[in-house]
Amino acid sequence: MEIPPKSPDGSEKSPQSKELLASNTASTLCISSRSESVWTSASRSKWDIYHKPVIVVSVGAAVFLFGMVITSLSCIQTKNKNVYKMCGPAFLSLGLMLLVCGLVWIPIIRKKQKQRQKSQFLQSLKSFFFNR
Can you tell me the distance from the alpha carbon of 80 to that of 75, in angstroms, rounded to the nearest whole number? Predict the structure, then answer.
């Protein structure tokens, strides 16, 4: 048997709402933000920076090679030739798309890293001159 809330106008607060009011949402928001790495100056390894595009390039290359094998099977095999002719180009195009996306992603990350280094350098110069 459930007990309904005593006052529908919200004058009597539940423990959950008291918790929400007591928590410091601004500090929680800053801690959980995605741009936390901007505030911390910990250097990251090259693998931490480039692991996503490297994975995309390697998966794209593997799918592209698989598409080449399937396409070449359509020339060699006489059984299921239509299936190979349909699937081969699909894997070729998908692999090529992933490969190109990964290869374009790498220079973008390099450019962002250079901009971040320049920004940190300018911030340190600004703080050096204005904090004296």
Answer: 11
